[in-house]
Write a structure and sequence with these properties.
The chain has 4 helices and no strands. It is 53% helix and 0% strand. Helix 2 packs across helix 3. It is mainly alpha-helical and 113 residues long.
């Protein structure tokens, strides 16, 4: 997560419980940082919440972020992976989210329907 403190509006976006969110803002306003903090917050929060079934927990592979260019999408993915690795290192006592396990759980749940 970022070293810079988010503004109250940015913090509201990071903490928003709604899964789908649109963040329109000007260039250089901190959108990428806010979205990375939101993604990491959701994933780390789910890791520590035993009331959420494994197949419903957020992972990098279960979150859709739309950008204007492929380069921007790749940049955001790299930043999200790096920030998530850093957050996991800070929370070593909690199990790391595993994209393959999340995919398998989602497939198993769909197969069970």
């Amino acid at each position: 997560m970022s070293d810079k403190r988010p503004t109250p509006d940015q913090q509201a976006i990071i903490d928003c419980k709604t899964d789908n969110i649109l963040v329109p803002a000007a260039a250089g306003s901190g959108k990428t940082t806010v979205m990375i903090d939101r993604i990491v917050s959701k994933i780390i929060g789910d890791m520590s919440d035993d009331s959420i079934p494994e197949h419903e927990k957020h992972s990098l592979d279960s979150i859709l972020v739309v950008t204007f260019t492929v380069a921007a999408a790749e940049h955001m993915r790299e930043k999200a992976e790096s920030a998530l690795d850093e957050a996991i290192a800070k929370n070593k006592d909690k199990p790391a989210p595993n994209s393959d396990n999340a995919k398998d759980a989602a497939k198993d749940a769909k197969d069970a329907e």
